[in-house]
Specification:
The chain contains 29 helices and 30 strands. By secondary structure, it is α+β, with helices and mostly antiparallel strands. It has a four-stranded antiparallel β-sheet with strand order 3-30-29-28, with no helix packed on it. A four-stranded antiparallel β-sheet has the order 4-5-6-7, with no helix packed on it. Helix 5 runs parallel beside helix 8. The longest helix is centred in the first third of the chain and has 23 residues. The chain is elongated, with a radius of gyration of 38 Å.
Length: about 900
């Protein structure tokens, strides 16, 4: 391991290639709890108002007696209300002054406010009269009139407020709100909003303050921000739009009751103009869409007021973009606006059908690349279907549109995102509740008794929906999805919902909304960008430097000559290991056993803390295992023979995502046109567990964030984009005896080892996915499946068949050459190829063989125990080999340079 990290210049750390590698499954819905608690309402409005009737300034007149704590100046003014009190007796002077005060200085106004301000007026007049001679003298002398200098008070207060925000930025980042001291300048900042010269800066600082979170919003509302920002909605300046829509987004996220005041004061027109203004950035328009969504949330008057803008919102989905991230927030909140606009409002739903809104959402649900946008579409369709409690309340057109929506929703139950599938399932539940039945059995008879036009259409779709939900309950890899489906099937009339909409809204109640979620909004105007915590940045730099040191120390071939030594050899479980993987950078390995568990061990065999993870469902077998984001914070990718993929957090064992990768196997009568029966299966069963039964195989590509998935009993490959969480397309391999291994590179090439002994290569950059079929020679056993593939050279592959035959394949010419390996009739039970050491290991019935990639035998370890090898795997960079046995044993072999390092 490299020991020079602490003296490595920052410029060298920035050049590390790991910084260029993308990180998968980093979206908010992967790591945040979607079951957000309801926001706590804080009362800030003044319910009991006091009317000011009169204000008086009363002076104590004790003529002839000076106050004891005042030093009398000489000369000293002695006129009181323009009367000399010493010109008459004290009693007479007191009465005269009081009468003069009431006669000349009492100001009566319309609201009966009595103001005794004569003393302040007197002082101001005295100051003016004192300065008048000097001013007249300067004017007569020709001196230019002095320039008016405004007070710097407001500017100084804004600067002090900016300093407060800077000093407390660390606390606001770590959410330690209880340690924050309320800024003294906040009330003055609100007053500055009335000053046009300082208004934009004040709004900027106020937006940054509200971005601290709920604590700041409650404090600002209690101080009295509401009437000021409500009045500013009448402003016409485009420069203020980003700040105002953001400030109102923060307020509405905390206190939804403000929607009543905004609708009454026609403030929604400001948000409408911002949303439909194509000159505004997509981030600012997304904020306006969120504000409009809050105005219609459970508020019938708001829904009716904003109904006319629905066609303009639908036009937003035609916004051109080069990358879906640019408009994902705008599409998300535009979709949620539609979902809330017609929620429990049949009149709005009828109008939405005329605007073809359900059709637009169905298209967006099946085509958009953002999982959150697709989930929002499913949510909006669910609120559309739930807006009527019975099919008898629907028009014929509504019935037809509901049926079309349910049909599209059924197809989306195979979406790659659990977030989307949950919303689809809830929407289908709302469709089932349109028919007046309580159990699936009685649904058909009741539906048949409905004689209205279109009812039979709902009945047939009802059967399909029920069957689809049953499939979810039996095969979905997400435990939450299974529970939700079972609840729907058992209690159709029971209210079922998710917290998706509340979770989306809650993101405006936390800190750093500007920099984290709205990069094209306010942050764009300030050049702000999201930066991770400083400590985490240092830790990441350390990991990347460690990875660089490991990759920079390749394993020489000579070191593999000494891999007879074991650093661990013991029985670890009663269950046989099926798959094992050594982490490329951390000092541990993961073992998947026949009981459906993952076990984690250090390289010396010590179980790690929290070392067991239950993965599969009953009856499923783990076939494949890989590390995602291995260069950073590792996730575990697990594939089972049910073609289910599950992604777990390595440190917390929390399920991050899951989906069915080969969903054609689970559609029950609805096969894809890419799916064909295997026409050339293996000839006879053998002892190789890799080919004796259907095996699910995947290949994870970190650089492209893609998963290639297939199986030994199908003839197509599914290509999944994990950032979009959807299947891009499937690649048909033709009759080939199934697919037993996959490999891909960062250029978009994918190669598959087939059951008939061929290798087929795909260029995923090509729309037609051209196939390069590289056949085996005629003398090669055509029923000898290729079980392992590794990249050999820039244009070559190295393959191993289940008979132990090594072949080199040229990707350019499609020609293969068999390496001079002695022929054997024994099936190998496991095999692997070292990525950097050019070493091949084969487990036969009586030995563990080590060979070069040219077929030369380095050495072998003979032992009858090797007949029981169930899996083996090389370390990607070091001289380490893990071997699992059917009796539950595990052995770790090492080269001469590793025994001390492990």
């Amino acid at each position: 391991m490299c020991d020079t990290f602490y003296v490595t210049p920052a410029s060298e750390l920035e050049k590390l290639e790991d910084w260029k590698k993308p990180l998968a499954f980093q979206a908010a819905h992967h790591h945040e709890n979607l079951n957000v608690p309801d926001s706590v309402e804080v009362e800030w409005r003044l319910r009991d108002r006091m009317k000011t009737v009169s204000v008086a300034l009363v002076m104590c007149l004790h003529i002839g007696v000076d106050p004891p704590d005042v030093v009398k100046s000489n000369p000293c003014s002695k006129l009181e209300c323009w009367i000399d009190p010493f010109s008459m007796t004290p009693r007479r002077a007191l009465e005269t002054i009081a009468a003069e005060l009431q006669r000349d200085r009492m100001l009566t106004v319309k609201l009966k406010k009595i103001i005794f301000a004569w003393n302040a007026w007197d002082m101001a007049l005295d100051l003016c009269l004192t300065q008048l001679p000097s001013v007249l003298k300067q004017t007569e002398s020709g001196i230019r009139e002095p320039v008016y200098e405004p007070s710097s008070f407001f500017a100084d207060q804004l600067t002090a407020f900016s300093v407060w925000l800077g000093e407390n930025s660390l606390l606001t980042t770590t959410l330690e709100k209880e340690h924050l001291k309320q800024p003294e300048q906040l009330p003055i900042v609100l007053q500055v909003l009335l000053s046009q010269s300082h208004r934009q800066r004040a709004l900027d600082l106020l937006a940054r303050f509200l971005d601290i979170g709920t604590w700041a919003v409650h404090l600002a509302l209690s101080v009295g921000i509401f009437p000021y920002v409500l009045r500013l909605l009448q402003a016409t300046s485009d420069d203020l739009r980003p700040y105002l829509v953001f400030i109102w987004a923060k307020i509405l996220a905390v206190d939804r009751a403000c929607q009543i005041d905004i609708i009454r004061e026609k403030g929604h027109e400001y948000f409408i103009s911002t949303l439909t203004d194509i000159r505004s950035s997509n981030g600012v328009r997304a904020l306006a869409a969120f504000n409009l969504t809050c105005l219609v949330d459970n508020y019938t008057k708001g829904q009716d007021e904003l109904l006319p803008i629905m066609p303009r919102v639908l036009d937003i989905f035609n916004t051109p973009t080069t990358y879906y991230h640019e408009t994902s927030a705008l599409f998300l909140w535009s979709t949620l606006f539609l979902g809330q606009a017609w929620h429990l409002n049949a009149h709005v739903c009828d109008k939405a059908v005329l605007f073809r809104a359900p059709d637009t959402l169905q298209s967006l649900l099946t085509t958009h690349d953002s999982p959150e946008v697709r989930a929002a579409c499913a949510y909006a369709l669910g609120t559309y279907l739930s807006s009527s409690t019975s099919v008898n309340e629907l028009s014929d057109l509504r019935i037809e549109k509901s049926k079309e929506a349910a049909t599209v929703l059924i197809r989306c139950l195979h979406d790659g995102s659990p977030l989307v599938r949950q919303e689809v399932l809830v929407a289908l539940h709302h469709f089932l509740n349109l028919l007046p039945q309580t159990t699936p059995v009685g649904a058909i008879n009741i539906a048949n008794s409905v004689n209205r036009t279109g009812s039979s259409l709902c009945k047939t779709v009802f059967d399909k929906v029920t069957e689809a939900i049953q499939n979810v309950a039996s095969s979905d890899p997400s435990h939450e999805m299974v529970q939700l489906a079972e609840t729907i099937l058992q209690h159709l009339q029971k209210s079922v919902s998710t917290k998706f909409f509340q979770w989306c809204c809650s993101r405006f109640r936390v800190s750093n909304t500007i920099t984290r979620d709205l990069g094209s909004g306010i942050a764009q105007q300030h050049g702000a960008s999201y930066s991770e915590d400083e400590d985490d940045c240092f830790a990441r730099s350390g990991r990347y430097w460690r990875n660089h040191c490991i990759r920079s120390n390749p394993s020489p071939l000579a070191d593999f000559q000494h891999m007879r030594e074991t650093i661990f050899n013991n029985r670890i479980s009663n269950a046989a290991p099926l798959v094992l993987r050594l982490h490329p950078y951390e000092n541990y390995l993961t073992v998947a056993n026949s009981h459906g568990n993952l076990n984690f061990y250090d390289f010396d065999g010590t179980p790690r803390s929290n070392s067991t993870l239950k993965v599969g469902s009953i009856g499923s077998t783990i076939n494949t295992l890989d590390y995602i984001n291995a260069h950073d914070r590792t996730l575990i990718c697990v594939g089972t023979d049910t073609s289910a993929i599950r992604i777990f957090d390595e440190s917390t064992h929390r399920l991050i995502s899951s989906w069915i990768a080969l969903y054609d196997q689970h559609t029950h009568g609805h096969p894809s046109h890419h799916h064909r029966s295997t026409t050339n299966p293996p000839a006879t069963p053998n002892t190789n567990i890799s080919v004796s039964q259907a095996k699910f195989v995947i290949d994870w590509n970190q650089q492209l964030c893609r998963i290639y998935a297939s199986s030994s009993n199908i003839d197509y490959i599914s290509l999944w984009d994990v950032e979009r969480e959807r299947c891009l397309y499937t690649m048909d391999t033709g009759p080939s005896g199934g697919i037993y291994c996959l490999i891909s590179d960062s250029n978009g090439y994918c190669a598959a080892g087939m059951g008939d002994g061929t290798v087929r290569c795909f260029d995923t950059r090509s729309r037609d996915n051209a196939i390069a079929i590289m056949p085996s020679p005629t003398q090669l056993n055509r029923h000898s499946p290729i079980v392992t593939l590794k990249a050999d050279t820039h244009d070559g592959l190295l393959s191993i068949s289940n008979m132990g035959q090594l072949r080199r394949w040229n990707l350019r010419t499609g020609i293969s050459a068999e390496l001079p390996v002695p022929q054997t009739s024994q099936h190998i039970s496991a095999a692997d190829i070292h990525s950097t050491g050019n070493v091949v290991t084969l487990a036969t019935s009586n030995a563990l063989q080590f060979k070069t990639c040219f077929g030369d035998l380095l050495f072998d370890i003979k032992n009858s125990k090797f007949a029981q090898v169930s899996c083996l795997s090389f370390h990607q960079y070091r001289q380490l080999l893990g071997v699992g046995f059917k009796d539950g044993s595990l052995s770790i072999f090492t080269g001469k340079t590793n025994s001390s390092a492990v």
